[in-house]
Amino acid sequence: MTLQQTYASEAPAREEIDALKGSVVVEFGTPWCGYCRRAQPLIAEAFAGFEAVAHYKIEDGPGRPLGRSFKVKLWPTLVFMRDGMEVARLVRPESAEAIRQALARIAA
Q: What is the pTM of this model?
């Protein structure tokens, strides 16, 4: 799976995310969020060299069960997972380096 460019309006169930094997980043946000838009170049830069990491870009908002199950409060929130377990989390990342460091923690 490559870096996703658009937020998916339909989210998988939490059980599906928890069952994923390997390295996964779940990104929560919205297309109209200014913080989310500013983070996109940083995320793209950080993912260079981590093509094997799966990226799920999920549109979040009130009443969206996946975001609530991860206790997301601010966007963007990036949840870094390895074999279904959360390893790291970044909220409103301000540098590609911070994202890269979290990716390195989950990379195979």
A: 0.96
The terminus-to-terminus CA distance of the chain in angstroms comes to 14
The DSSP bridge partners found for residue 80 are 25, 88
CB proximity list for 85: less than 8 A, separation 6 or greater: none
DSSP 39-87: HHHHHHHHHTT-TTSEEEEEE--TT-HHHHHTT--SSSEEEEEETTEEE
90, containing H or E segment: strand 85-91
Sheet harboring 23-29: ordered strands across?
54-59, 23-29, 77-82, 85-91
Distance CA 77, CA 23 (A): 17
From residue 79, how far is each of 72, 96 by CA, in Å?
A: 10, 15
Query: What are the tens digits of pLDDT across the range 31-82?
Result: 999 999 999 999 999 999 999 999 999 999 999 999 999 999 999 999 999 9
